[in-house]
Each structure stands twice: as structure tokens, then as C-alpha cells.
Amino acid sequence: AAPHVKSRCPQYPGSKIKRFVVPDDKVDWGQSWPQYSPVSHTDPSVLKKPVWADPDIGSFSPQFNAVDGGVDRTSFDGSYKKEKGKPLNPRGRTGVTGRGLLGRWGPNHAADPIVTRWKVDAKGAKMNHPVSKRPILQFVSIKRKDCGEWAIPGGMVDPGEQVSLTLQREFSEEALNSLTLPQAEKAKIHERITKLFKSSGFVVYKGYVDDPRNTDNAWMETVAVNFHDESGNSVSELPLQAGDDAGQVKWVDVDSSFPLYASHSRFLELVSKERKAHW
Ligand code: RP5
Ligand code: MG
Ligand code: MG
């Protein structure tokens, strides 16, 4: 795989911390590099010991490469190494040690629901792209509040939570604003979208995410699943409303030129290939 890039972004998100500059040929841990002296950083929001974060190593020695009391500490990349009790990023150096903004030492598991429909004209006919001549997919995209980038409305898998539930829950929270709805409204939305999310989605990707929050000791992994509303009359008819960590939400045309958060563009490329759509 190509070396991670966003995991080496010059400035660590949500801070004034500058990463130690890691050139492409020094990303791999196998390259000896005595001069490497990364910055140690764990965000105050993590140090404050919220429920979603691990304690500091020393007082705490979790079971790495295992499911540890509901928390999945296994990696899709296989067994990861440890150094001085701390897990090592399987994709190599990032220029920062500690956890940064991430709660877990090692893998931090997320799920990404990619909800798609075909772009149609006023008469309901599928629209083809003028250059590729292929039909255009649209997906539900949110604008992240933390960085302002457009993204898939994904989120972290709670301890013991089934990924299938995370996918539906995060979509409801971020794209339908379910967290602030009264119980009756919530139930209605749940009913409307359960059918789509119960359909066997297409598993687009399982693995490491090149996320700007990654560090040498903590990184994002995800399961990205595509739920496609072929007829355009299930989720497509629901009013989108941004919620939780989403500032805006809208249907976005799937196109290689639209910049997206972390590795999300790669996931959409895989969706468009699978559905023979424009990319
Ligand atoms: C990305 O961060 C994943 O692909 C997922 O979209 C997201 C999960 O983090 P939060 O949205 O909970 O911040 O790496
Ligand atoms: Mg969320
Ligand atoms: Mg999220």
C-alpha cells in the first residue's frame, strides 16, 4: 500500500502541535532512523478520562491484539507490534506519539455508512455524466464540525456494539439528527431506515484509515458499507438534518474531483466501480 499521507499532516488537528517531518522513505518502521524524535501529544479531552478513552499506559495494560472486555483491540492489518508497552501504528511513523485526539491505544474502530441513490432529472430519469457517459451516484455527505471537511457520516463502534448497529446509529445521529428528536419521531425514522440498513449492504472496505488524527500509537480503522436506494424512494425521501458532530448534510455527486476527509474518497471510488457509475 502507498504510505499514509494524512496521518503525517504537518499540524496535528485541534492543536498547535507540529508533527516531526517523516519523509516517504522513512515511514516504514523497518527503516532504521536514529534521528527520529516525534512529538508526544495526547489531547486534554482524552486526558480528562471520558468513558470513550483508555487510561494512560503504566497504570493500565490492556490486552492488545485481542477483544478486551468489549473493546476490539484487534487490527484488520493483522498482529501489530508493541514498543515499551505501547502499540505501534501498522502503517508506520506519523511524527507524533501518544494518542492525540483518539481515545484508544492501538486501533480505534469506526463504521462508515455510504448511503447512495442515482442522480435523476426532473422527470426522474437517471442522469449520465457528459464525459464518462456513466450514471451519476449521489451519497449522503456531512460537513464535519471538527475540520470543515466533507465526509461520510461515520463514527466509532461502541464497546460490544455490532457494526451493523453502529452504521445505522451514526447515520441517524449525523444525517437525520435523531439525537434531538422526540421519541415518537425517532421511532418513525428508525422504522423508515431499518429496511435499507437491514438489506445486506455491499462491504466496500475493512481496514486502516489514513486519518489526520492518527499517531504512532493510535490509529483509525473502519468498516465501510454501501447501502444503495435503487428506486430512490426509501432514504431519499427523508429530510436530511445535520446532527451531533455534523455541521451540514446534503446529497453529493460521487466524483473523483470532490475532496473528502481521510480515506473516504477511496471508499467512494470502490462504490462507483462496483455500481458501474461515474467516478
Ligand atoms: C474516520 O473517522 C472514519 O472513516 C469515520 O468516518 C470517522 C469516525 O470518527 P468520528 O466521526 O467519530 O470522529 O477515520
Ligand atoms: Mg457520530
Ligand atoms: Mg462521526
Verbal overview:
- With 279 residues, the protein is an alpha+beta fold.
- The chain has a domain at 111-211 and 221-274: Nucleoside Triphosphate Pyrophosphohydrolase (Alpha-Beta Complex), CATH 3.90.79.
- The chain contains four helices and 13 strands.
- The chain has helices at residues 44-47, 163-175, 183-198, 264-274; strands spanning 39-42, 67-68, 71-72, 82-83, 86-87, 96-100, 106-118, 137-144, 150-151, 155-156, 202-209, 218-228, 246-253.
- Strands 7, 8, 9, 10, 11, 12 and 13 form a seven-stranded mixed beta sheet that branches. A two-stranded parallel ribbon has the order 1-6. Strands 2-3 form a two-stranded antiparallel ribbon.
- Helix 2 (163-175) packs across helix 3.
- The protein is globular.
- The model has no long low-confidence stretch (mean pLDDT 95).
- The structure holds 5-O-phosphono-beta-D-ribofuranose (RP5) and magnesium ion (2 copies).
- One magnesium ion binds next to helix 2.
